[in-house]
Design goal:
single chain, 204 residues, three-stranded antiparallel sheet, 4 helices, disordered N terminus
């Protein structure tokens, strides 16, 4: 019995001593911090910009040709084409070249029109610097904006409008037809000047 009490007294003394030690140190150590994993915030994907316009808002880009002077002429104005045919010294309609816009809509740019009275050439470009150089150094005069067009094929259904030039006649020629382009290069003395713009095709 005395042995049991001695052992019990020892345990009580040890527990009291441990408690005083913990108290002297400021209490039991805090539990280890919980490790929180934070998932990185995903970068938001920008919403696509609606830049493609309703094809039903497009107008016909009419094409006429004067074989006497070797000039292709393009306009969205039926009245202007009739004026060129009736009073322009030999222009004839060659139908519709493509479909374009007559007012500036999202993602479209001006398709500038110039005319050289010396070489009798209508020239079309979207390049502001090229237009200014043609006016300042090559004898062209500005005739405003022929239409508004796309500069890339980003919009579904658009096709390239090819640009060609004949140094023999001084004529700039524009067509969406690869066959017509290749024939003009092979048989009519034209050289390719790449893609002028992107347009909507003529409905078939």
């Amino acid at each position: 019995m005395k042995i049991f009490l001695t052992i019990l007294t020892g345990f009580l003394w040890f527990g009291q001593t441990a408690a005083l030690a913990l108290e002297a140190r400021g209490g039991p150590p805090p539990p280890p911090p919980t490790r929180t994993t934070v998932s990185p915030t995903p970068t938001p994907t920008p919403s696509p910009i609606a830049t493609c316009n309703d094809p039903n808002a497009a107008f016909a880009l009419l094409r006429a040709f004067n074989s006497a002077v070797g000039d292709h002429f393009y306009t969205t104005s039926f009245g202007e084409e009739i004026q060129a045919i009736n009073h322009g010294g030999g222009y004839k309609s060659e139908g519709t070249a493509a479909f374009v816009f007559v007012t500036q809509l999202p993602a479209t740019v001006p398709f500038f029109r110039l005319f050289n009275p010396t070489t009798v050439d209508h020239f079309y470009t979207t390049d502001f610097n090229e237009r200014n150089n043609a006016i300042a150094n090559l004898g062209y005069v500005s005739q405003g904006t022929a239409a508004f067009v796309y500069t890339s094929a980003a919009c579904p259904g658009t096709i390239p409008l090819f640009r060609l030039f004949s140094s023999a006649t001084g004529d700039h020629f524009y067509t969406t037809s690869t066959t017509e382009r290749d024939t003009a290069i092979a048989k009519s003395g034209y050289v390719s000047e790449g893609t002028a713009v992107f347009v909507l095709p003529v409905p078939t």
